[in-house]
């Protein structure tokens, strides 16, 4: 019986520690998660800066930011972002081909939500001659 109680106590301790650790993880809080460029001229790259804060208790570390195509190039804060501090993910879209576009940026990090998505959209219009 003592072994059973000891085992239950150990399991409960593990569960409580795991739950406390989950609450202390870093987390993103973005000002905006989608940017609509509207109509942009063909042949003129456009850039937008997604700003965020770390609302968690531990430093936020972004491991990668991947785009859905080669026409979208992301740059991001690569140093750990401490609790309450801000970071950025800057995305440049190469408006080479006319037409509507919807692109996805996939962020991988140590946050409570380890995979996060940002979106850019708009319409590339042919350059006036």
UniProtKB/TrEMBL annotation:
Pfam families cross-referenced by the UniProt entry: DUF1573
Superkingdom of origin: Bacteria
Signal peptide: 1-21
Xref: InterPro entries: DUF1573, Ig-like_fold
Keyword Iron part of the UniProt annotation: no
Membrane spanning stretches: none
Annotated keywords: Signal
Record-given protein name: DUF1573 domain-containing protein
Organism: Arcticibacter tournemirensis
